[in-house]
Specification:
With about 350 residues, the protein is an alpha+beta fold. The chain is built from 6 helices and 24 strands. A 4-stranded mixed sheet has the order 3-17-16-15. The protein has a 4-stranded antiparallel sheet with strand order 9-12-11-10, with no helix packed on it. A 3-stranded antiparallel sheet has the order 4-5-6, with no helix packed on it. Strand 1 and strand 2 form a beta hairpin. The N terminus is likely disordered.
Length: about 350
C-alpha cells in the first residue's frame, strides 16, 4: 500500500485553507464518548459491500497489523505540515520527529485496536492536504464555521445532521451522526451525536453498559443516550472488571498490562483481552529480553554504532533527516508537494 500511495503522492499538491481531521472521537470537549468511522471506513467498504478495512479485519481476530515506518512518516508529514488542522491542539505532536515516534509507538501497542480510525483511514491513505481534508470533513463544508467560535469553542449541527465544533471560524472537529444512525443536538454549547432520550433502565450517572447487539457501548449523559460502536473498530462490547462496558477483542482473557513475545508477535492486554501485534509487518521485532524495557513490545533493533535516536531532526535541502531506532532516516518533503523542509519554528516539518 505505502509504495503505491507514495507514487500517487509525489504528484499531489498541498491544498488550501484548513484540514478536517475527524478523530474517531473520544470527544473530551463535549464530555461525550462517540465513535464515528472515517469516510468510507468501517464494517463495510466504501461501496457499501462486505469488504472490511485491513485494520478492522485484523482487529476482529484480536490482531494489530502496524503500518511500516515509511507509512508513518508519510502520515506525519501531512499531520504536522498542513496548516489549520481542525484537531484539538494537543492531539498531534508538534513536529515531524516526535509525530513519527508517538504514532509508531501507539500503532505497535495493544491499544492500537482502539486507535482513531480517521487517523488510520485518512491520515495513512491521503496523498495531499486536500485529500486529507476531503476524507476527514465527511462531506461538511470547509468554511462551515465562518462567523462562529469567536468567543470560545462552540458546536452546531449542519443541515445534513453533522455535529461540528468551531473555534475562530475554523472547523475543529466533525462527527457524522448519520453514519451511526444518530441525531445531532446542541447542549450547553457543545454539539454531539445521540441516539435519542435515555431509556428508563439507563440513567445519568450509571456506568456504561453493552447494548443487546453486543457491539455498542451505551451511556446516558444529560438525559441523552450516546453510543460507541465497538464493531466499527472490529471490537466487541464487553464488561470490564469494574462493571463498566468497554470495547475489547475476542482474544483470551488477560489482566493488567501483561506482555510477552510469541515468536515475532507481541502479545499484550487491552481492556482485559489479549491483542496480538505483528511486529514484523512494521519491520520491527518483539523484545523478549527479561529485565529490559519494554519486554514483549515491538522494537527496532539498532545496528552497531547506530545513530542517536534522541538527536534532534534537521533539514537537508528539502529532506528531513532524523534517527529512528538507531537507524538514519530521510523524508523528502517534495514527495507530497511541499517545497521545503522548515526548521524555523518549534521542531522540523515540511512547508510550502
Amino acid at each position: 500500500m505505502s509504495r503505491a500511495r507514495k507514487a500517487v503522492g509525489a504528484a499531489g499538491t498541498v491544498g488550501g485553507l484548513g484540514l478536517g481531521l475527524l478523530l474517531t472521537l473520544i470527544c473530551a470537549a463535549a464530555g461525550t464518548t462517540v465513535v464515528q468511522p472515517a469516510e468510507g471506513a468501517g464494517p463495510n467498504g466504501p461501496d457499501g459491500g462486505a469488504t472490511l478495512s485491513s485494520f478492522v479485519a485484523h482487529a476482529q481476530r484480536g490482531e494489530v497489523e502496524p503500518p511500516d515506518i515509511d507509512d508513518v512518516e508519510h502520515m506525519c508529514a501531512l499531520l504536522t505540515s498542513c496548516d489549520k488542522v481542525p484537531i484539538p491542539s494537543g492531539f498531534i505532536p508538534p513536529d515531524f520527529q516526535s509525530c513519527v515516534k508517538k504514532f509508531t509507538d501507539d500503532l505497535t501497542s495493544p491499544s492500537a485496536v482502539y486507535f482513531s480510525l480517521a487517523i488510520r483511514e485518512c491520515g495513512l491513505q491521503s496523498n495531499s492536504c486536500a485529500s486529507l481534508r476531503a476524507c476527514a470533513l465527511h462531506g461538511a463544508s470547509a468554511d462551515a464555521c465562518q462567523g462562529r467560535g469567536h468567543a470560545g469553542v462552540v458546536g452546531f449541527c449542519d443541515v445534513d445532521g453533522r455535529a461540528l465544533t468551531c473555534w475562530h471560524d475554523q472547523v475543529l472537529s466533525v462527527r457524522d451522526c448519520g453514519r451511526g444512525n444518530e441525531q445531532c443536538i446542541v447542549s450547553g454549547g457543545d454539539s454531539k451525536c445521540v441516539l435519542g432520550p435515555c431509556p428508563g433502565n439507563i440513567k445519568d450517572g450509571d456506568k456504561p453498559v453493552c447494548a443487546a447487539d453486543g457491539a455498542h457501548r451505551l451511556q446516558c449523559e444529560k438525559g441523552k443516550l450516546v453510543s460507541l460502536d465497538c464493531a466499527t473498530l472490529g471490537l466487541k462490547c464487553t464488561t470490564g472488571p469494574d462493571g463498566s462496558a468497554v470495547c475489547a477483542t475476542g482474544g483470551a482473557a488477560c489482566t493488567g498490562n501483561s506482555k510477552r513475545c510469541d515468536g515475532n508477535t507481541a502479545v499484550g492486554c487491552f481492556n482485559g483481552h489479549e491483542v496480538r501485534v505483528d511486529c514484523a509487518s512494521a519491520g520491527l521485532s518483539c523484545n523478549p529480553t527479561p529485565g529490559s524495557t519494554p519486554v514483549g513490545a515491538c522494537v527496532s533493533t539498532p545496528p552497531p554504532n547506530g545513530c542517536d535516536s534522541t538527536a534532534a531532526a534537521k533539514c537537508d535541502g528539502a529532506s528531513i533527516k532524523h534517527c529512528y531506532g538507531g537507524k538514519p532516516r530521510a523524508y523528502f518533503c517534495k514527495a507530497l508537494g511541499f517545497n521545503k523542509c522548515d526548521s524555523s519554528g518549534k521542531g522540523v516539518r515540511c512547508a510550502m
